[in-house]
Design goal:
The structure holds 3 protein chains of 3 kinds. By secondary structure, chain A is mainly α. Chain A contains 12 helices and no strands. In chain A, helix 2 packs antiparallel against helix 3, helix 3 packs across helix 8 and helix 3 packs across helix 11. The longest helix of chain A has 30 residues. Chain B has one domain. A two-stranded antiparallel ribbon of chain B has the order 1-2. The longest helix of chain B has about 30 residues. Chain C has 2 domains: about 240 residues, Rossmann fold, CATH 3.40.50; about 60 residues, 2-Layer Sandwich (Alpha-Beta Plaits), CATH 3.30.70. Helix content of chain C is about 35%, strand content about 30%. Chain C is built from 11 helices and 13 strands. In chain C, the strands form 3 sheets. A 6-stranded mixed sheet of chain C has the order 5-6-7-3-8-9, with helices on both faces. In chain C, helix 9 crosses helix 11. The longest helix of chain C is centred in the middle third of the chain and has 18 residues. The chains are: A mainly alpha, B mainly alpha, C alpha/beta. At the A-B interface, helix 2 and helix 9 of A face helix 2 and helix 8 of B. Chain B: It comes from Mesobacillus persicus. Chain B: This is ABC-2 type transport system permease protein. Chain B: Keywords: Membrane, Transmembrane, Transmembrane helix.
Chain lengths: ~260, ~260, ~325
């Protein structure tokens, strides 16, 4: 309960800051839209030259992409702590965080939240809507609940992976480019994993399970029954990966060396 | 001049110091190339060739495009933005060197490091795993390296421009991100330009982005032949020159701004 | 009652040294030279409620590392810490609600939003009730004279203004224990005086225990009865400030400024007095003795030579500390 009210406190502070810098907010939303458009363009161009991708047609791939955008938007709004090392470890902001009576990870998530990324939810729903109409998909009432749990699962998988990577900062304060590259790898979960070599498929399923933030859960709504097993694993994977990152974080805080000295 | 060489050297040493970065980088680039290889194999399906490129050429294209990226890619736009925000730029201005020149040299040091310790070993590893064709033609290699230098110049110029924009925007992260996305798509890193619809290709000839990735990669895969190579490199040189103009303009504006606001 | 109880505290850092040159850097890529350094080396310390303790030492002596362990930011390598009856690192979230921390070099406030917004957020973070907040903070805001600053964003404040706000922010939950790490760094004298006055006040009013590190020893002189001196991770002195002064300084200095140039053989020679020439007309006498010897010396010198000025130098804490670090000190 305390954490919920803290969330609203931080969110209202965030909105106040954002209203002060309106132009930046608009630019940020536009750059998000651009990013989403670019990926869509990629799919469209690829399908200019082929009719199917590993047995999936254009609208199906577009649907997967639309689905991906929803958990990704939740992730970007709350867990996008790519500059954690730079900002909190190197510059020593972590000292301040650790002198406050709220869990350190929660504070950092709150401080780094970017609510404007939530627009991605809308983009995702629109894209999914388009693809679903083209494919003539139908949904049952409980599909809404399934959708929500899979979206949350996906967002927590992303969060778990990025938080785990951020904790590297506790062990080594050297700069890493892992974070930006991880965004690239995240993209591969948006394509049917059956096109990849089994090593990559294994990585995308169990090591960096980005396939659970795209193709696996989307397969459920696309009625691809051969993938249902994986699809329903999505929330479980979310809980597992987020828990791992939480444990890593707590272990990391113990190793924190402080800044400057 | 020796001062700038020193900067290259220092940045080179800095890169060597970050070894976690080094190991993880090789791994991640390999995964990237691997994933794209399979993605393209699936796209090709049973097609022998698309837009004049065979599967083999396409794989080579993907591999070389990523490895070249390791050379031309840098974060100086973000660095400049950060230095402006922290007010460090004002201090840099009173130092006896050209700030932008110095940033470029730092980027070059970083690029050379990655080229030698990253792209070359990485390319060898990738060539062992995936089918990749290396040209036996010396002039192809020669043109490739010339064109790689230009791709570094053009990309760095665009980064400088984006960085300088921080003088005029309060928060530049949105623009920097947009730039990165645009470059990935329009430079030909994700898709060869020849795959785009014709009208889009026409638009892109008026933009500097294909000088960054498409041209060196096409030269390497011998997707360009004969006069095409020559024209392509010329186009890169043209953009490298043209981009100097907005940099100059914005930079002098930025300096005025700095004097007025005191950083 | 002890607020802070520290026993055999030790903190080690592992660091690596870089090899020089390009080939060295390349070798570092594969193997590195590691070494272990003890930043804090076997420290034991007790602080009672209501004490104001100055924690001093040179850069790298281990001051900040100790403070960071006491505030739960760093985990100790070994030894035990009990602060406010808790283990700072283990019970971090519960523990930090009972302390206030100010890092002079680092802002606790949010850069982009108005000071009062930061206060409001912190009030929630520390779960302070409205009545408590109004009663306590009204007074703090008044004493620190920051009322007019509350609606300004932090980035628009001067250093002195910001520092006063930082101090107020650290006191929102009225903690019984306050850690101040370089709170007056870079501030002008007026702001320093204001802050010192304020600290004295809360110490008297609420019996707030204060642990203070600073480079500016006048802070310590003004505030602390007790000092803890740290060198290379070890405590080399822990006791009263005035005792440190009398123990560390054997004797006094008397500076004579003569009207004319004076040769050394014209001076007065007594046992336990050593002369040192500062310039043509000025001599410095190092007197190893008490006030009687000093007055004897002055009267003898004045009789013999025309004098423009005589000054008895009080040795400042700063000089004492410098002396201790330069010469080492055998204190019990």
């Amino acid at each position: 309960m305390f954490y919920v009210s803290m969330f609203f406190q931080y969110a209202s502070q965030y909105l106040k800051t954002r209203l002060t810098y309106r132009i930046d907010t608009v630019i940020e939303i536009l750059s998000d839209l651009l990013f989403q458009a670019v990926n869509l363009i990629f799919i469209l161009i690829v399908f200019d030259h082929t009719a199917s991708l590993g047995g999936w047609n254009r609208e199906e791939i577009i649907f997967i992409y639309g689905f991906f955008l929803v958990p990704y938007a939740l992730f970007s709004s709350f867990f996008n702590i790519w500059d954690f090392n730079e900002r909190y470890i190197v510059r020593g902001e972590m000292d301040r965080v650790l002198t406050r009576p709220v869990h350190s990870l929660f504070q950092i998530i709150m401080e780094r939240m970017e609510l404007e990324s939530l627009f991605g939810v809308i983009t995702g729903l629109v894209i999914m809507g388009y693809a679903a109409t083209e494919l003539g998909l139908t949904f049952a009432w409980y599909d809404v609940l399934i959708f929500i749990s899979m979206v949350l699962g996906g967002a927590f998988i992303y969060a778990g992976i990025f938080i785990s990577i951020a904790t590297i900062g506790f062990w080594s304060d050297s700069r890493t480019d892992i974070m930006p590259m991880m965004y690239n790898i995240g993209n591969y979960g948006r394509y049917p994993v059956n096109i990849y070599h089994k090593v990559i498929r294994f990585v995308l399923t169990w090591i960096l399970p980005f396939a659970f933030v795209g193709v696996y859960p989307a397969a459920y709504f696309l009625n691809r029954e051969e993938w249902y097993g994986y699809a329903f694993l999505t929330p479980v994977m979310g809980i597992v990966f987020f828990s791992i990152s939480y444990l890593l974080w707590n272990a990391g805080v113990k190793r924190y060396r402080g800044a400057g000295n | 001049m020796s001062m700038y060489l020193e900067m290259i050297r220092v940045r080179f040493l800095m890169m060597l110091a970050y070894r976690t970065n080094y190991y993880s980088g090789i791994l991640i680039y390999s995964i990237n190339i691997g994933a794209y290889y399979f993605l393209w194999s699936a796209i090709y399906g049973n097609n022998e060739e698309i837009q004049g490129l065979s599967v083999l050429q396409m794989t080579t294209y993907v591999a070389v495009a990523w490895m070249a990226r390791a050379f031309y890619f840098n974060n100086i736009d973000r660095e400049i933005a950060a230095e402006i925000k922290d007010g460090k730029v004002a201090i840099e201005m009173i130092r006896p060197y050209n700030y932008l020149g110095m940033k470029t040299m730092q980027a070059l040091g970083e690029g050379i490091f990655r080229l030698l310790f990253f792209s070359v070993p990485g390319m060898i590893i990738v060539a062992l795993v995936f089918p990749i064709s290396f040209s036996a033609n010396l002039s192809t290699w020669l043109f490739f390296f010339v064109s790689l230098v230009f791709s570094f110049i053009v990309n760095t110029q665009i980064n400088l421009l984006t960085g300088i924009m921080s003088f005029f925007l309060f928060n530049n992260t949105g623009l920097i991100r947009a730039k990165r996305v645009v470059i990935d798509l329009f430079s030909g890193l994700l898709l060869p330009i020849s795959f785009y619809p014709l009208w889009a290709q026409t638009v892109m000839t008026y933009l500097p982005f294909q000088a960054i990735s498409y041209i060196p990669s096409m030269i390497f895969t011998e997707g360009f032949v004969g006069k095409e190579i020559f024209n392509a490199v010329l186009l890169q040189a043209f953009w490298a020159l043209i981009l100097l103009i907005p940099i100059r303009l914005l930079w002098s504006l930025a300096k005025k701004q700095l004097i007025v606001q005191g950083g | 009652m002890n607020v802070i109880e520290v026993q055999n505290l030790r903190k080690e850092f592992k660091s690596y040294s870089s090899r020089s040159g390009l080939s060295g850097a390349f070798r570092d890529l594969f193997t590195r030279n590691y070494k272990t350094l003890a930043a804090v080396d076997d420290i034991s310390l007790n602080i009672k409620q209501g004490e104001m303790v100055g924690y001093i030492g040179e850069n790298g002596a281990g001051k900040s590392t100790t403070i960071k362990m006491l505030t739960g930011i760093l985990t100790p390598t070994s030894g035990s810490i009990v602060v406010n009856g808790m283990n700072p690192h283990k019970q971090r979230e519960e523990f930090v609600r009972t302390i206030g921390v100010v890092f002079g070099q680092r802002s606790q406030l949010w850069w982009d939003i108005a000071v009062q917004e930061s206060f409001r957020l912190l009030k929630k973070v520390y779960r302070v009730s409205d009545e408590d907040y109004n009663r306590h903070m009204g007074h703090v805001i008044e004493t620190l004279e920051i009322g007019p600053l509350l609606d300004k964003p932090v980035r628009k404040l001067s250093l002195g203004q910001r520092m006063r706000c930082e101090l107020a922010a650290a006191l929102i939950h009225n903690p019984p224990l306050l850690f101040l790490d370089e709170p007056t760094i870079g501030l002008d004298v007026l702001v320093k005086l204001k802050i010192r006055k304020f600290l004295k006040e809360i110490n008297e009013q609420y019996k707030t225990t204060i642990l203070l590190t600073t480079h500016d020893l006048t802070d310590i002189e003004a505030l602390c009865e007790r000092v803890v001196l740290l060198d290379e991770g070890k405590i080399i002195y822990d006791g009263k400030l005035n005792q440190l002064q009398s123990q560390a300084v054997e004797g006094k200095q008397v500076e004579f400024e003569f009207l004319t140039e004076i040769a050394k053989n014209n001076l007065v020679f007594l046992p336990n007095v050593q002369w040192e020439q500062k310039d043509a007309t000025t001599w410095l006498a190092h007197v190893n003795g008490d006030e009687r010897l000093v007055s004897q010396l002055i009267s003898l010198v004045v009789q013999k030579n025309p004098i423009k000025n005589v000054r008895i130098n009080e040795v400042s804490t700063e000089e004492i500390v410098r002396k201790i670090y330069e010469e080492g000190m055998a204190l019990a």
